[in-house]
Amino acid sequence: MPFVNELTKYDSLSIVGLEKNTGKTECLNYILSRLPLERIRVGVSSAGIDGERMDQVTQTAKPEIFLREGVLFTTSEKHYRHRRLTSELLHISTEQTSLGRLITGKVQSGGKVLLSGPPATTSLKRWIDFLHKHHQVDLCIVDGALSRLSMASPAVSSSMVLTTGAAVSVNMQELVNKTAFVCELIHLDKSEYAQQLIHADNQSQVQIIDNELQLRTTPFSSAMQVDTGLKPIMKQAKAVFIPGALTDRFLKSISCDAQLMKTQIVVRDFTCIFASPMTFRLFLKKGGTVKVLEKSKLIALCVNPVSPGGYKLDSDKLCDELSGKIQIPVYDIVKNG
Amino acid sequence: MDNRFSNIMGMGVRWFFENLELSSSFSGQVLREQTMVVDAHEIKGQYQRLEVFCQITAPDGAWQGKVSRLQSYLGQLRDIRQSLSSLGQSHTPDDIELFEIKSLAIINEGMRPWVNDLRLENLQLPDLSAAHNLLDPENSGINSFYVYDAYDERLPRLRQLIRSAGEYAEELQYQTAVIEDSVRKTLVERLLPYKTQLQEALLMLAHVDILLAKALQVQRLSLILPVADEHTTTLEGLFNPEVKEVLEKEEKLFEPIDVSFTLYQPLLITGANMGGKSLTLKTIAMVQLLFQFGFGIPATRASLVPVEKVFYSGGDHQDMLKGVSSFAAEMKNIDRALTYMQEGKKILCLIDEPASTTNPTEGAALVKGLLQMLLHKNSQSVITTHYNLRDVNCQRMRVKGFQDGKMHYQLMADNQEETPKEALRIATSLGINPQWIEMAARELENTNIQNNLINEPK
After folding, report:
1. Which of A22, A150, B209, B442 could form a disulfide with A17 if both were Cys (CB 3.0 to 4.6 A apart)?
2. Percent of chain B with pLDDT over 90
């Protein structure tokens, strides 16, 4: 598979599912079994609890994570004790999770393990830095938990693989639309003012780039205050940085003013956009621009045509429909793996 | 409540604890579990060790430039007391516990030459090289652990088979697991002779961490090492670093205080409001506790008398939940201190404005009575008051007070038996309604005239 080679160019990767049971773990196993371990050192962990043998919500079978010799992995104390492989224990972190401290080990002879890793984006980022710095890991892979897209934030990892499938919707059209929209958001361009905005002192305030291209901090802390004074400030700006979420309400509120539409809207990354597809697309169609501070590279889209209830979509048709809408490779790894 | 460090964190001691740069949180745990040292000889020993640590970490000391490396060793110290004490009982440790034991041995071996070179009494690290070798059969010297191939000749072959199998090999995994389990069992038996040494090393390393942090604190905050005295507590240039820090932020100066008091005779501190009496009392309590837990002392010179308990009464005692008035709560509190003394225990008794919530006549009588109770006891007591007390057998000091439009917090010897009447002056400086002050002044004048008429010989 070509996309596995692409992965080795990045230092971190998140695997995220649009929904539970979209084949995320299967996808991780697929990637782990094909990465050239003789060339690169790989570390793997999970965002929160993952790798249960049974899906805790839908009670369906889940594939376990198989690790080959040489891979570094981080999991909780509890799951380290239950591992079914031989591994050399390298480090015990002081960080506590609900399942005990986090243990990092190196696989000596392959086998299976349950992964439960750092529970928050900041601790995930710390974990990635730790493996890079202290264990010379080239690629850190984060198995995202439960459709939590925020774990795929570029603040954590530089590349991502997205999984989607019949679990999102058994209506193929709806599935394709939903997936395409997320891909569209991930592909949003990085703002030309990103360098300036990223160095702003107070990232929790609305920032603007004025007509003289100077960075200015406003007294507003969110886009919710759009109707109470943010608009006049926006009119004199080239770009406005919105901390937190970008919502329908905000987009609707400014899309009725032609002058406001000229201002570029900047959000931290795609996970901050909570607007509905319709409002968001309408905003862009009317001439608005939305850009991001940080962008991660979407490397591939993996699909699982089977829903947890057993309903099965036509795999080839689904892949065709999706590749028609988005410009990245689409795979059904179960069928073609 | 016993005299554990974790129980005496009030009075500003917490600030010292929080400002202690311990490398490992386990050392903090050990410190919190320590009980107050009462024996003068033992206190002396503590400060001798701290003095050595101050010397070696000083700019020209033996450890200069090495401290951060030693701290990174100590930073890996974990609380594995549970794993160590269960060694040899029916429980077989898993890889995580064995890793932690190995880490402990590595830290110990790394620190041992440094610590043992100091030749300090009660501070020698045991030799754990044999235990370390046992957990590092391949002599890698790396801080990691698994059931190494070297432990059992069957392991390398089995693991090779698993590797070449490619996918998950249930039967082979099972066979390996069985062998690994038996290896761990043997390992425990071979580790057992070192159990006491491992436990000793763990606590000793925590003590090294604590001493190192205390020594660095002494240098950072310009503290001094006090001496123990049998009768008299003398504190010169005493300051409260926490308050000093706050004042310096407001560009104000902390005026250091000199104070001295002895066994058998209570010290009475009088003085104006806002004169820092309560702060002085709290700082004395803090210094006494720091002394008995072997910390550096914020003063220029300090000698203290070790006591069995530090007793402090001050502030609002009211406890609405218990339905007790502030007066009742305070009385009961002081009564406890008197009981301690009557039991013959040596304590430091610090009472801030006793009986100030009741009427002045009875209040003054209560304080006077209290001072008599405290006289000739094998304890030290310091009392502050507003009441004008005459004819009491006690040592007296007063706050220098409001002079040249400025408050002076120093204490000075006081032989007059008059409380200085500064309340009105202070109230004026606070910008209080002048009419009120004027009326009060007139009232005071009238009282004085009446008193003089009464006292005038007929």
Report:
1. A22
2. 49
Contact A92 B95 (CB under 8 A): no
* A72 contacts chain B (CB < 8 A): no
What is the arithmetic mean of pLDDT over B43-71?
Answer: 91
Taking the CA of residue A29 and the nearest CA in chain B, the distance in Å comes to 11
Please count the residue pairs, one from chain A and one from chain B, whose beta carbons lie less than 8 angstroms apart: 53
Are B163 and A110 within 8 A, CB to CB? Answer: yes
Query: For the segment B65-122, what is each residue's pLDDT rounded down to a tens digit?
Result: 888 889 999 999 999 999 899 887 878 889 999 999 999 999 999 999 999 999 998 8
Q: What's the 3-state SS for chain B?
A: CCCEHHHCCCCCHHHHHHCCCCCCHHHHHHHHHCECCCCHHHHHHHHHHHHHHHHHHCCCCCCCCCHHHHHHHHCCCCCCHHHHHHCCCCCCCCHHHHHHHHHHHHHHHHHHHHHHCCCECCECCCCCHHHHHHHCCCCCCCCCECCCHHHCCHHHHHHHHHHHHCCCCHHHHHHHHHHHHHHHHHHHHHHHHHHHHHHHHHHHHHHHHHHHHHHHHHHHCCCECCEECCCEEEEEEECCHHHHHHHHHCCCCCCCEEEEEECCCCEEEECCCCCCHHHHHHHHHHHHHHHHCCCCECCCEEEECCCCEEEEECCCCCECCCCECHHHHHHHHHHHHHHHHHCCCCEEEEEECCCCCCCHHHHHHHHHHHHHHHCCCCCEEEEEECCCCCCCCCEEEEEEEEECCEEEEEEEECCCCCCCCCHHHHHHHCCCCHHHHHHHHHHHHHHHHHHHHHHCCC
Average pLDDT value over all residues in chain A? 85
**Under an 8 A CB cutoff, do A88 and B146 touch?**
yes
In chain B, what are the domains?
20-215 (1.10.1420.10), 223-420 (3.40.50.300)
Q: Is the pLDDT of residue B190 over 50?
A: yes
Mean pLDDT of chain B: 87
Question: If pLDDT is split at 50, 70 and 90, which confidence band does B320 have?
Answer: low
Find residues 161-190 of chain B whose CB sits inside 8 Å of chain A: 162-163, 165-168, 173, 176-177, 180
User: Cβ B99–A92 below 8 Å, yes or no?
Assistant: yes
Q: Among 3.30.1370, 1.25.60, 3.40.50, 3.10.450, name the CATH number for the domain at A2-187+296-336.
A: 3.40.50
Q: Which residue has the higher pLDDT, B437 or B41?
A: B41
Per-residue model confidence (pLDDT) at position B458: 41
Residues of chain B neighbouring A84 (CB-CB closer than 8 A): 168, 173, 177
For residue A255, what pLDDT is reported? 84
| Over residues A294-302, mean pLDDT | 88
Chain A touched by B159 (CB under 8 Å): yes
Q: Which residues of A touch B168 (CB under 8 A)?
A: 66, 84, 110-112
Query: Residue B180: closest CA among chain A residues belongs to which residue?
Result: A86
**Where do the structural domains in chain A lie, given as residue ranges?**
2-187+296-336, 194-292
> Which of residues B105 and B411 earns the better pLDDT score?
B105
